[in-house]
Amino acid sequence: MIDSSPVVTRFAPSPTGYLHIGGARTALFNWLYARGRGGKFLLRIEDTDRARSTPEATEAILEGLRWLGLDWDGEPTSQFACRERHAEVARAMLENGTAYKCFSTVEEIEQFREAAKAEGRSTLFLSPWRDADPATHPDEPYVIRLKAPRSGETVVHDAVQGDVTFANEQLDDMVLLRSDGTPTYMLAVVVDDHDMGVTHVIRGDDHLTNAARQIHIYQGMGWQIPVFAHIPLIHGPDGKKLSKRHGAVGLHEYAAMGYPAAAMRNYLARLGWSHGDDELFDDEQAKAWFDLNGIGKAPARLDFKKLEHVSGWHIARMSDDDILAEIATFLAATGAAPLEERQISRIRPALEALKAKAKTLPALLDQAHFALIDRPVEIEEKAASALDSVSRGILSELTAAVQNASWSRDELEAAAKQIGESHGLGLGKIAAPLRAALAGRSSTPSVFDMMLALGREETLARLQDQAG
Asked: Which residue ranges does the chain devote to CATH 3.40.50.620?
């Protein structure tokens, strides 16, 4: 086991598509564990599947990690680029006797399995070349197989799952190097993790059986076995394996739905890991608290209501500059035009009020509609009903009353209240035509928040447009 070595974790996605939310959580766990201990978080692109790996998918994964705010140390490494090193290790194992040359053909292996199945035996292939005298080796293509132990047990000491035991008779002599000289995934992963100095392998529990087989490679080379931590997968709200039928499964979809990156980090951290009853926290707390013993063994369930709650908490606590940066990222993710300077200048003064209620960035922008539009304000049908002749007359009075006001909330509110009282109306009745004139809607933020954000000149112009 690793004790005093500096912590090194890694995230190793295959570039065959977008970054899945499950992969994003795995990356986050690795990032938190390393960053909380002053260690390194490395990135490896497992691009050995040349038919399916694409540069576009690699860039999509990198972009997803950047959006989520997960920085990595050094440059991302390519697994494919290290194939000669992988082959070198396979040959080294051949030399030290922990691997052997197998000349069995695909047809022979299939015949073995069919016969074993017919006789009710294990179909795990037992190569006749395992202990063959090298002098009997034919001059034909061969694969290099691991000489795995045939008896006893292999125990994976897992930081999440506990000790998991595998009977060695159930683990085959897996191929390390194919007959064309290309390494298999199982060999490449172990060699890369060793060469990168990875001390903790934190990944999905669908790799648990792989760990038992990979341990044999570590042992065959006399290498230090890393700490394994296999985390449960993410399920949908119905408890079934997460898929597209549950909605968004790609990280990019969450960016386009308007969840801030900080909120996603918080939510994903709590998806399968806990620190007491703490639900809402920032990055520094997450780094300080995150540990492998806080990861549960049961699959986590995606819950959009919880995500919205977490998102709202983070939005309310963000600085104005951070909110504006998140809005810019969100608009870019959806292909929408960026905010113009005049829109930013109007929305900024309103952010304090807007972010207190918004759960997502689209919800915030919806409330900020009044700041994003220009004159003449288009009035929605429902709001138009508040602009009868009496209301328009009141708007005219209010325009005159606030013409020379100090433009403070107290003074604006006092002027509106005074005019309302003169007509026997409460502030609520005054607010309806004000909402219509300022935003063209019947549901808006506080009318005084809007007036303060728009400023004297723009507010008076909008009121005059609708005044009778």
From this structure: 82-231, 245-361
